[in-house]
Design a protein that fits this description.
The chain is α+β, with helices and mostly antiparallel strands. It has 9 helices and 21 strands.
């Protein structure tokens, strides 16, 4: 009996050893997949199906929009000083270099026919403009038109199979919405950064005549100007324009022109060769306690008119000094910047409803705006 148990135990030991060897070296013989160590299994994540982004990833939005974002290189010929050949001039000021000035920015293809939106300050005074696509194709660009008041410009390139970005709806944005900024910062190549909408309707920054900026903390740096601010679906929300910075780099405060404004500028330049804006000929001021007391106004909201151009659209419609404009075409007015933008959006020659307060009386007038004159270098803007 003792010998039988000894033989049985030896047989079981041999069989277990054989099973272990086969299971380790040839697991498929046993119908099992290769086993992995616990540490390795913890490090590996399940593979993501092609075309499906991992949770929390902005991969699809970046892929959808980045193809339509381009880099823009500009050059401007050096301007020779007429005294540069004078020996005394050279003695005091040295040799004046004749190297061309170069610039860097970004742009967004908004039409498969080759129209590109960018900032006016990116291409202003440039003699040559080169556009570099994300697929490495190059093309010379032609300036179709510029709008310094909004700091926007429209370029055109002649290439086939151009990817165009989808225009989103910037009017539905809310603070806290996630966004991506795409451009070519510092010339390092196309870069995507992410953040949120930090604020809306930023104005009185002294950047443009018409200011209604989207503020974001997505990193925007020099070279990003003219690039795209997009939503998490890859749709265009704005054109990146400026940053607040003490170092020259991103400090988490960047500004973009809403696509609603950019679309109006694009359509005006492409169709008419210029942007057409409304104008009524008044001198507006934010309503302060001092002005309210001077004109006998009781309200604390709206924009007070302190001057009216004789025979201008406002004067002909009955607007007087001391009137407080509270809404334009149904849109509430809280400050001068909002009045400026609202009036500019009106179609010249078409009557629009203005609501105002005249002392304590509510008045509604139909005002027919005229065509906004081109500004004569820098003066106090009138509206």
């Amino acid at each position: 009996m003792k010998r039988f148990w000894l033989l049985f135990s030896q047989t079981v030991t041999v069989l277990l050893a054989a099973y272990f060897v086969v299971g380790t070296l040839k697991p498929d013989w046993l119908g099992n997949q290769p086993s992995r160590s616990g540490a390795l299994a913890l490090m590996e994540a399940p593979a993501t199906a092609p075309g499906v982004a991992p949770p929390g990833s902005f991969r699809l939005a970046a892929q959808k929009s980045s193809a339509a974002v381009v880099s823009i290189n500009t050059s401007k010929a050096a301007r020779n000083n007429p005294n540069s050949n004078d020996p005394w001039f050279k003695f005091f000021f040295g040799d004046q270099g004749n190297e061309p000035q170069v610039g860097l920015g970004s742009g967004v293809i908004v039409s498969d026919s080759g129209y590109i939106l960018t900032n006016n300050h990116v291409v202003e005074s440039a003699d040559e403009i080169e556009v570099i696509l994300n697929d490495s194709r190059h093309a010379r660009a032609k300036v179709i038109g510029t709008d310094p008041d909004s700091d926007l410009a429209v370029l055109k390139i002649e290439l086939d199979r151009l990817p165009a970005i989808v225009l989103g709806d910037s009017d539905t944005l809310q603070v806290g919405d996630q966004v991506l900024a795409i451009g070519n910062p510092f010339g390092v190549g196309q870069t995507v950064t992410s953040g949120i909408i930090s604020a809306l309707g930023r104005n009185q920054l002294g950047i443009n005549t018409f200011e209604n900026f989207i503020q974001t903390d997505a990193a925007i740096n020099p070279g990003n100007s003219g690039g795209a601010l997009v939503d998490t679906s890859g749709n265009l929300l704005g054109i990146n324009t400026a940053i607040y910075s003490r170092s020259g780099g991103s400090m988490g405060i960047g500004f973009a022109i809403p696509v609603s404004t950019a679309k109006l500028v694009l359509e005006g330049i492409v169709k008419d060769g210029q942007v057409t804006r409304g104008w009524i000929g008044v001198e507006p001021n934010d309503l302060s306690p001092e002005l309210a007391e001077t004109f006998g106004v009781k309200t604390r909201s709206g924009v007070i008119i302190t001057g009216v151009l004789q025979n201008g659209p406002a004067a002909q419609s009955g607007i007087r000094p001391g009137d407080v404009i509270t809404s334009v075409a149904g849109k509430p007015i809280g400050n001068v910047s909002e009045l400026l933008s609202s009036v500019a959006a009106l179609k010249p020659g078409t009557a629009s409803k203005f609501s105002l307060l005249r002392r304590e009386e509510k008045v509604e007038l139909d005002v027919i705006p005229g065509l906004r004159p081109k500004p004569r270098r820098p003066v106090q803007p009138t509206q």
